[in-house]
Design brief:
Blueprint (H helix, E strand, L loop, with lengths): L28 E5 L2 H4 L5 E7 L10 E4 L2 E8 L1 E6 L2 E6 L3 E3 L6 E6 L4 E7 L4 E4 L21 E8 L2 E8 L5
Antiparallel strand pairs: 1-2, 2-9, 3-10, 4-7, 4-9, 5-6, 5-8, 11-12
Length: 171
Amino acid sequence: MQITSLATSFSHVKPNDTPFVSGGLRDFFTYRDLGVEQATGGRVIAQLVRANQAPEKGTGWHVHEAQFHIVYMLKGWARFMYEDRNTLVEAGDCVHQAPGIRHFLFDYSPDMEYLEIVGPADLGSVGVQGPCAVPPPAAWVSAQASSVAWAGELPTRRGALRWGGEGRGRP
């Protein structure tokens, strides 16, 4: 079978082809375009999202106007509320955000970076009333204070996840 016309075009973006820039959906993140939006005529966007500032208020409760949305955590971690579920997303985790799911990204590590793939590319975000209270984010620890010990507990579906260690790493 011979393809006579493509609805999309070939795209190959190298790491230095596109920089991380501000001006995306959230001012506390920077975004790196991976060329997919242009290649698909706006049907899909693929971008890298990186923490740029410490979490203060988070994203607020919202839904996206998207038919498809995945987040693949490359580095660090982020804590989301998906409806009433407190969800820790760590490096290597993949989340499919179902269309219309209410969510709130409220905490993340300084090194957080994730791949986001969304269709259609003109991702809209609409503020909504949340179903529950959201925990406050933890303060980022400076390099000088990284030797301070921390410990805590995060509720999970199977009970509580306990953690402890040095500096600001995983919640």
